[in-house]
Model the fold of this input.
Amino acid sequence: MADEMVLDLEELRNLRSVAKRPRVVSFISSEINRLEQLSKEAGSTVALPMQTPVSTPTPITTTKVVPTPAINYITLGSFSWEQDNDKVKIYVSLEGVDQEKVEANVKPMSCDVKFHDVQGKNYRCAIPKLNKEIVPEKCKVVVKPTRVIITLPKASKGNWLDLHFKEDKLKPNMDKDRDPMSGIMDLMKNMYEEGDDDMKRTIAKAWTDARSGKAADPLKGYN
Done:
């Protein structure tokens, strides 16, 4: 379109240069002016305002948080153990344990070892209160094909009478406000409960003599 307009202007200017009659020259000049005006308008571009792209808001997906169900454990109540002067070893018979799925929570006076996803089940070996203190940072759990070995280093060397903590029933109560005879009687009761048949007969006789006044010391018959 612009090229055609330029060619028309050139030809009209040529015609005006050769035209003789005033009316023709005026007509050609008028047409030249009109085309020049159109040419100027076509050459000037009108800047249109840029349209800001409208961003479509992304919908927020609401994720429903499903609470993790509590893990159920089967307590292993049957296991064996041994000791030496420095450590205690617990042997748990359990097949299919993955070392990576063992969780141990060991404290100075307790031990709780959990075995996750063992043939679709979860197990635990827990001792709420040990006989004596151990060293948690030195404890270790070793998984074997058919059993698990839990090693608990002792905080102090020595022999444990039991793996679990037990109150010393033979230790008399030394409460100053109590009657001394009451403490001795408690001691005799504990000895009676823990003793064999001969000890029970001897303590029963000592009790009978003490009550009848034959012996001032209830332990006299035991000695």
Summary: The CA atoms of residues 66 and 72 lie 18 Å apart. The beta strands are 74-75, 80-83, 87-93, 102-107, 110-118, 121-127, 140-143, 147-153. The mean pLDDT is 78. Residues 22-43 form the longest helix (22 residues).
